[in-house]
Amino acid sequence: MEQMQQRTSVDEAYFNSSRTAINDLFNLYLGQKLSQTTYDDSRNKAQKRVDAVNRKLDPPPNEQFLLDFKEIQSQFQDQDQQLRFATQSVLVAQVVQCSGHAPRAEFILFALRSLSSIGYINWDTFLSSLLSWASNSEMSLGQRSLPCPGISPSSNLVSPLASVHSIASPDESSIESPSMTSVNEFNRDNAISSLHQLCCKIIVTGLEFNLKPRTHADVFHHMLNWLVNWDQTQQSSDRLKSQKHSKAFIKWLHSCLDVILRLVEKSKSRVPFYELIRSDMQFIENIPDDEALFTLILEIHRRRDMMATYMQMLDQHLHCPTFGTAPFLSQTARIMGLLKELASSIQKESLDWERALRCLRHALRTTSSPGWWVRSHYVAHYNRTHHHAFSFGDVFTSAMICEALIDRIIELLMLTNSEINCWQDWLIFSDIFYFLVGRGIIDFVEFVDNLVSRLAEGDCILQTNHVTWLLAQIIQTELVMKVLSTNPRKVEITRKILSVHKENRSSDLNSPQSILLDFVSSCLSLHNLSLDTSYIDVQLKKGKQIDEWWKQVSKVVVTGSGDGVMDYMNMDERSAGMFWAFSFNMTQLPCEAIMSALSSAGTEFLAGPVLQHTEKLLLVTKEVNPIPMSLLSGFSLHLCSKLINQMEESLFGGQVVPSIAMVETYCRLLLLAPHSLFHSLFPHLDRRTPHRLRNHGSMTLVFEILNYRLLPLCRYGGKTKQLMHDIIKIISFIKGKRGEHRLFRLAENFCMNQLLSLRNTFFVTIEGKGPAEYTETLNRITIITLAIIIKTRGIVRSDNLLCLPTLLEEILANSQHTWSEKTLRHFPASLYKALIVRAETTVLSQCTKLFSPSADPTCVTNYISHSSPQHWQYLCAGAWWILMEGHPENMNSENLAHVLRVFSPEEVTANIYTMVDVLLHHIRIELQGGHSSQDLLLKACENLSYFIWTQELLPLDILLLALIDRDDDPHALPIVISLLDRKELLERVKLYCDDRGSSEHWLYSGVFKRAELQKALGNHLSWKQSFSMIDILQYKYDRYPTFFDDVAARLLPVIPLIVFRLIKNDAFEQAERILGVYTPLLAYHPFRFTFFHDILAYFYGHLPGKLILRILNVLDISKIPLTESFRQHINSSNTGISPPLDYFATLLMNLVNKVIPPLKTNYKSGPTAPSDDPKPFYQIQDPGTYTQLILETTVIELLSLPLSPSQIVLSLVKIVASIQSTLNQSRSSPNSAGLGSVLPTATPGGGNTDNSSDANRSIPSVSGINSSVFASRSGYTFQQLSCLLIQACGLLLAQLPISFHSSIYSEVARVIKESLWLTDGIDSAASNALVDPAWAAQDITSTAIGNIIALLHTFFNELPQEWLMESLIIISHLRPISSIAKLRITFRVLGPLLPRLANVRLFFKKMLLELFSALEDVFGINSQATAPAEASEIVDIIDFIHHAVHYEGQGGPVQHNSKPHPEVLAICAEAAERLRPDVRRLFSHLNPDVNSSIYVVTH
């Protein structure tokens, strides 16, 4: 240790000595004062020369420097490394100290070149040290740190540059005058400029040598920092003016630019030009009057814009959520394209602002789901409280939402003023408005200010009281009450609220709406009594009229019994209007009246079986009429909320079983206002009545409500994931609980419906509640659902795609049964490969002793107590075997029933699956013995019917599912069909349909009939088994009555699955017949539209026309908005003939009018009447929103046509390719003028508007379309309409099954290849052909290529990530790619997909490799390009690839610290090896080699 310390001290001494000698040598040649310390007593030539110079004062000639340096070098031969370090250290210090002295600076440059010539300068370490010193010096000067001139240059704490200025600087303690301060600033700036200039000259010299990538990167970033820092320090106009005229500054600036240009020089590619593009240099504001700097910044912007074209899709500013597709919740942020950190900085009236408002306006018109608005809630809240806190994907500010709400109010007011009946629109809007205000998503004060201001501006003349009614809806919410009581402007805000009132001038004061609008203002007055105005007095009089009416009605209008209960079933329109108005003034009395009406019939004890001695009689509320939806719709939402709370207390917390009328009214309220009133039911109820919800009856009621009334509402509200989580916890708790069959089967049936309703993939494992917690039935339904989703809609989210293998492994690990080959052949490949490996097993077991007619009841106890649980799954199989060998009377079915009730539900499921295996195996054995197949099937069905209907021992739905799961056996499906044809089942179904009435339960006004529990569910589900093993034979009824549950209703999710399996087995006739027989029952299916849409998509091209017609009839054609042309074509005999183009154009036009978000509305141009009557949610529960209904109906039309995918695609693409020229024919039509345009008003090329004839020759119009009528169907100009039709076509194609994609890609590639731009070989014209159609439409310069690529980009925008990879086939169709024009088009088509795939590296790498292969076709070593091309012609593509690689590495928008992933760099390096050397050089930094890439060494 001591020796090491001694060695270190010796090395340090040598270093100091050598440094002193080198420093004195430089001081000698620079003419500076020498050091007083000598390093050696011996005399030599160099020392003699130093002494001589001290006397002569003139430095020796430069040529002598190298000789003198070698003399010193000879003195330190043993310490060469220390001498090198000392030399570089002194050089750096002298550069910083002498930069302001021109002769000395020139000598330093000479010394550097001399020392470099003998290899004594390590340029990498020297430049790094130099730049570090320069930065420290600049910082010191910027802080006005002026040290004394005597400070040694060896100090690295204080810049030696300061000593240059200290002679002219005043003492630090003195007070500087303004003029002196300006001089000092000028001197400092000149000193910094001189230092920068000298450093740049040195760097230019160093660049002649082979520097490491790290050094290049270090130099580059220092140059950029100098320029950017200079820009940021320019605060004084006088200082800036002096800088512009400073020669030192101009020289430094040019030197710095020279270094940058040398670094990015294409022939060397020391640093990619892309680094300039992503730097802050492009944002320099104080650009001096210098041509060189301006030219470079202009080039950066030009190349940045060129690169950005490959990142953005054509007409991207028109992409907007339509709320017509399932994944819109997760796609909104991506589609809008707004960065979350920029949301609050978007300027009003900007393009981004209008894009956001377009989305919000459309969300208000189409009644987007509450879940979507909740996403907006977070950003609105954060914008108001934490200005820099945003959640991912949130793109709307409170101000945006506020403006959109006011726009919608103005729009509705204009419709109302035009005497268009839009009361339903107001009701729908009030629900959303109440939700947004109640959640605090908008600033209420800001909203009132802006609303009153807009109304004062005259955007719309206020003629009615609708705005007053709207404000009265939210006046009692907690947030509004707080504002009106605590806000400093509360009086002003109150006066503004009251100012929107208008006296009702309607002549029809007998309609409920008119009466409500006339009296509703009294509600606002009651909350503002402190304002002493005549208006308050008038409204108080109206309030008294309402009170008098209520007193009169409560005395006179009573039920026949005279008990004071309001007869709401016979209420006239005036009474209804007054009741509505009263609900706004007071909530307690109306709430009590409604609750009293629902319980007015009294109570009774529930009739049922003989009770046990410990049981009490069950008290049930007698049935009355439910409250009509027409009456509920006019109540204030505050009253509705109070009613919901009161009903929940009675339904789930009372001691009396509620009536079906109260349950139905409760559900109607939730359906009426899905935004304001609906919550995640389990967490909501658990918070309110946690102990009561654990009650068996309350839990059963919740499941019945969810399963038979609120399933679509759960999906619409985005509550599916939370509900699945909650219910799976319940199922996992009770699935092994003995005797809990009713609740378990109801919960399982609900989950089946939930799983089959999903339209997106889902992450099943939530907090450990995944397939391991699922039942056997649910695991199998999960597989079916995944197969349908993957095949018909694709996997939208990348995390779902990554977890799919794990999900399948977990399902297989917890599933005991297999999948038939016939089922698997229709599965997607990802599922087929995972499931085909499962092997089949069949087991037989005998239980003759237990089922012997002479067996006493103790056999049951002995069986349960002493038999192995592993043998219990064979109980039903043994019972069935006994039936097959004898007669039903020979089996003790009572014992079988007792044991099955003791079993847990999952054990019963296992028994059913095992019994089915034994049954089918037995039939095969008997067939080999010569028995008749028909006789065996008949006997099997008779025995199963004995189990199901005679003894009611087994759940029918689970048995049917088990049989169809064995569809690889030829006898399984015939048994299913026979069971469905049984008289017992058909009678039960008919009884269910008769008792339930219309499937639209909210329209039913009669008294509901409650079915007896045992008749509704059968013995197995209605008996509740005792859990005591000692008293095993004691059992009792589960006496809690049913509300909507029934054995027939349990078949609702099963019947479509049976049809699904029949189609897979090509049993089309049987499938059609089953659909025909069970059409009345399927009318009650909560998701029949979704499921049959999925069947058409899943089996597209496999279904006969007759079966398709049957499916359409099941969907109730009269209620589906199918086009008249489709109805005619589907019934015609000309199958296989494509409809005229006008039919497809009509479909697209329908999507533009009803699905695509409208462009900005010019409100002063007059109102536009809605094309259809608005539909509240409860009328379109499946699929959910009106836009979803229109879009999916259009898809159903196309899938139902007897056409091939290529025929449909050809027609749609043909329309889009020539859409502008086709619509241009109708320009002279007086109806073609429409709404104000939000499209750009000028094209980048400044095209002429008079060249329509040339455009028409390039793109001929499409025949078969009545263009004049076609263009007049909308309020858009033909330029707007053409772009929106392209958007509609891309959206529609994206909804079609993946089997259409190959036709889409081949057809668009054909159009591109046959384009005039490419056939003429005009490479330079390709850029003009790729202009956004929104731009090109302005001057009628649209091209087929531009239209087709815009179509593809809209198509890509709507596709799930999994399906995007199919787009790579476009490159194969476009080959041979023999020109830059084709190459640029290829990158323009597929380039925007790279950002979409950045979060899935596997997909990103595949796409990147394909783009490199296209690049190789033109610039490869073995390229067959038609003409040689220069690498400089594709710098935009090279910049784009660099940017895409950084985007993937960052996982989002590129930041300053973004870095490529090594795996991606390796792929780029491998692909670049196949390119020409000149092109390969431009990709040299996309390489994982540390000696080649700046991206490896700098991160």
What does this structure look like?
The protein has 1499 residues and is an all-alpha fold. The protein is built from 77 helices and four strands. A two-stranded antiparallel ribbon has the order 1-2. Strands 3-4 form a two-stranded antiparallel ribbon.
Strand and helix map with partners:
Blueprint: H1 2-30, H2 45-56, H3 65-75, H4 80-98, H5 102-117, H6 123-142, H7 162-165, H8 178-206, H9 213-232, H10 237-244, H11 247-263, H12 274-277, H13 291-311, H14 328-336, H15 351-366, H16 370-385, H17 398-417, H18 423-438, H19 444-456, H20 466-474, H21 478-486, H22 490-499, H23 512-519, H24 521-526, H25 534-556, H26 573-585, H27 588-598, E1 603-605, E2 619-621, H28 629-632, H29 637-653, H30 660-672, H31 681-688, H32 690-693, H33 696-708, H34 711-716, H35 720-734, H36 741-757, H37 776-792, H38 798-813, H39 821-824, H40 829-835, H41 858-866, H42 875-885, H43 893-902, H44 905-928, H45 933-950, H46 956-964, H47 972-980, H48 983-996, H49 1013-1022, E3 1023-1025, E4 1035-1037, H50 1047-1050, H51 1054-1064, H52 1068-1077, H53 1079-1082, H54 1088-1098, H55 1105-1114, H56 1124-1130, H57 1141-1154, H58 1186-1200, H59 1205-1217, H60 1219-1224, H61 1252-1258, H62 1267-1271, H63 1278-1294, H64 1301-1313, H65 1316-1319, H66 1326-1329, H67 1333-1336, H68 1344-1358, H69 1361-1364, H70 1369-1374, H71 1380-1390, H72 1393-1396, H73 1401-1419, H74 1435-1450, H75 1462-1472, H76 1477-1482, ...
